UniProtKB/TrEMBL annotation, chain A:
<dbReference type="InterPro" id="IPR000572">
    <property type="entry name" value="OxRdtase_Mopterin-bd_dom"/>
</dbReference>
<dbReference type="Pfam" id="PF00174">
    <property type="entry name" value="Oxidored_molyb"/>
</dbReference>
<dbReference type="InterPro" id="IPR036374">
    <property type="entry name" value="OxRdtase_Mopterin-bd_sf"/>
</dbReference>
<feature type="domain" description="Oxidoreductase molybdopterin-binding">
    <location>
        <begin position="94"/>
        <end position="228"/>
    </location>
</feature>
<protein>
    <submittedName>
        <fullName>Molybdopterin-dependent oxidoreductase</fullName>
    </submittedName>
</protein>
Automatic annotation (TrEMBL), chain B:
<feature type="domain" description="Cytochrome b561 bacterial/Ni-hydrogenase">
    <location>
        <begin position="18"/>
        <end position="272"/>
    </location>
</feature>
<dbReference type="InterPro" id="IPR051542">
    <property type="entry name" value="Hydrogenase_cytochrome"/>
</dbReference>
<feature type="transmembrane region" description="Helical">
    <location>
        <begin position="25"/>
        <end position="45"/>
    </location>
</feature>
<feature type="transmembrane region" description="Helical">
    <location>
        <begin position="194"/>
        <end position="217"/>
    </location>
</feature>
<dbReference type="Pfam" id="PF01292">
    <property type="entry name" value="Ni_hydr_CYTB"/>
</dbReference>
<feature type="transmembrane region" description="Helical">
    <location>
        <begin position="237"/>
        <end position="259"/>
    </location>
</feature>
<keyword id="KW-1003">Cell membrane</keyword>
<keyword id="KW-0812">Transmembrane</keyword>
<feature type="transmembrane region" description="Helical">
    <location>
        <begin position="125"/>
        <end position="144"/>
    </location>
</feature>
Length: 254, 288
């Protein structure tokens, strides 16, 4: 009897392991099916549209100095290998400038001083990484809206692309946002963090803050801003490094 | 169930209609959805296997819960850490071998995550798609159940049932595995009602609320969602704890199904038809 029980138990165990294995490989296989995956990924559109409808121009929460993370984790590229960047870093970014081009009436080259001379916004916000961790920091810089207004964004420009000085796993980092986020009051080009110029690990000399989205949208080491009508022709065509190389959603508000 | 119905209660052994179509459909859809949500959620957890209280939390901040790996005298091991207490979980959590025999230093092992090999992006695609199924199916089911009287008649805990003696009685019945027989088997006992109500109105809505609270987009227009939990990282912790609660419910639910006649229960949740138990038990009691 006991042997019978044992074998029955063994049978159940083998059976359930097999069932689990089948279910697992089944799910993985299902995910590789293009139309199934497309259906799953269409949820991203639902999230984007519903967030935009419900959120509109809502501001991300802002905090006080008492809420700051004692240490703000730096992620992604913490250092930039590019020779020009190294030289600029050594010179305190004295000869550095931000190029603004693409679908604008007037292309611009803005020095760090020029960016500091624009009206500034200072905000203490929470940085949420896609991995799950959060850190609170204070950011300061001109609103992106003033920069693109200065360059006179053309009406056909639908996206603003941020090109970065760093290569991440040998590929150029970049990110993009749409007009709505580009003109959002909390979308700034931060050159200062927690009261000091950005450190290299946090994206010196300039990084994007687009506060209602996840960390991978907060492009660091920004050197060039390009206004475009479509993202299709830029790098992998999905609007960002992680979107191209990791199947992460372009809309990162979830 | 009202008095008129109890007056003509069916006999033990009779086949009766047990679960409504809405309950059966939602149960099937929800079973699949929750499994996908749990397994993809565990993969998302693997991307940062630490939990915090408060608004922020990253590697430099103290975690109240952590799954990780380390090395002791050159020997690698996996562990689960709850505040200051560490349990060795080598082979199961934190450090385990994948099907190719390669040692992986990830929190949850391949056989319980979706996808089975590490991909935060793929797990998020599963999780954020099925989250919509979970939320809208739950909303629809609760609405239908309010309208058709399922909540009022079957789930609502009456004042009499709230009496500590009544609850204690049901606890003892469950502990002795004495399940209701005859027409009484058509009603949920108070513990069942509390469990189902806890899932329908507690755990599942809390999963959705804490899930939304973690979204930086939602946090801008509905900051109250993360504020009520004490911050984004607290909401993430509660999300994980509620998931553990749902797993606990599932285990007890499965145990009860297995102990109370699995074939009959399975038929009832698939076809709606249920054989009233208790003919034999009733006879045994007569003989005593």
């Amino acid at each position: 009897m006991s042997r019978l029980l044992l074998s029955r138990r063994g049978l159940i165990r083998t059976g359930s392991l097999t069932a689990t294995g089948l279910a697992l490989s089944g799910c993985d296989a299902l995910f590789d099916n293009p139309s199934f995956r497309k259906t799953l990924e269409s949820a991203e559109d639902f999230h984007r549209v519903s967030q935009r409808a419900l959120g509109g121009e809502a501001l991300a929460r802002e905090y006080t100095k008492a809420d700051l993370s004692p240490e703000f984790r730096a992620n992604g590229s913490r250092t930039v290998a590019d020779a020009l960047y190294r030289r600029q870093l050594a010179q305190g970014f004295a000869g550095w400038s931000l190029r603004v081009e693409g679908l604008v009436e007037r292309a611009l080259d803005l020095s760090l001083d020029a960016l500091r001379g624009l009206p500034q916004r200072r905000q203490i916000t929470r940085h949420d990484c896609v991995e799950g961790w959060s850190a609170i920091g204070e950011w300061q810089g001109p609103q992106l809206a003033s920069v693109v207004t200065l360059a006179r964004l053309r009406p056909e420009a639908r996206y603003v692309v941020f090109h970065c000085a760093d290569l991440y796993h040998a590929r150029p980092y970049y990110e993009s946002i749409d007009r709505l986020d580009a003109f959002h009051p909390q979308t700034i080009l931060a050159w200062q963090m927690n009261g000091a110029p950005l450190s290299e690990a946090h994206g010196a000399p300039l990084r994007l803050r687009v506060e209602r989205q996840l960390g991978y949208k907060q492009a660091k080491f920004v050197t060039r801003i390009e206004a475009v009508a479509s993202l299709a022709a830029i790098h992998g065509g999905k609007g960002g490094y992680w979107e191209d190389n990791g199947a992460y959603a372009w809309y990162a508000g979830i | 169930m009202n008095d008129a119905e109890t007056a003509t209660q069916p006999d033990p052994g009779a086949i009766v209609r047990r679960h409504r179509l809405s309950t059966r459909l939602w149960h099937a859809l929800n079973a699949v959805t929750l499994l996908v949500m749990l397994m993809s959620g565990l993969m998302i957890f693997n991307a940062h296997p630490r939990l915090y209280w408060g608004e922020y939390g990253a590697n430099f901040d103290p975690a109240w819960f952590q799954i990780g790996s380390g090395a002791r005298a050159g020997q690698p091991f996996g562990f689960v850490q709850l505040t200051d207490t560490r349990i060795d979980t080598t082979g199961w959590l934190g450090l385990w071998k994948d099907p190719e025999g390669v040692v992986q230093r990830r929190a949850f092992p391949y056989w319980i995550t979706l996808p089975s090999s590490y991909s935060l992006a793929a797990a998020r695609i599963w999780h954020l798609a099925f989250a919509l199924v979970l939320a809208f199916a739950l909303a629809a089911y609760l609405l239908v159940s309010l309208v058709n009287g399922h909540v009022r008649r079957d789930i609502h805990v009456t004042r009499r049932e709230w009496a500590p003696r009544a609850i204690w009685h049901d606890v003892r019945d469950h502990a002795r595995l004495r399940f209701p027989t005859g027409a009484a088997a058509l009603r949920y006992s108070v513990l069942q009602k509390l469990a189902y109500a806890g899932v329908l109105f507690g755990l599942l809505p809390a999963m959705i609320a804490t899930g939304l609270a973690m979204s930086p987009g939602t946090d801008a227009w509905a900051p109250v969602l993360s504020e009520v939990f004490g911050g984004r990282q607290s909401a993430r912790s509660v999300h994980f704890l509620c998931a553990a609660g749902l797993v606990g419910f599932f285990l007890v639910h499965m145990a009860m199904v297995l102990l109370s006649g699995p074939i009959n229960q399975l038929r009832a949740i698939v076809t709606g038809r249920f054989r009233l138990p208790g003919g034999r038990t009733a006879r045994v009691e007569e003989n005593q």
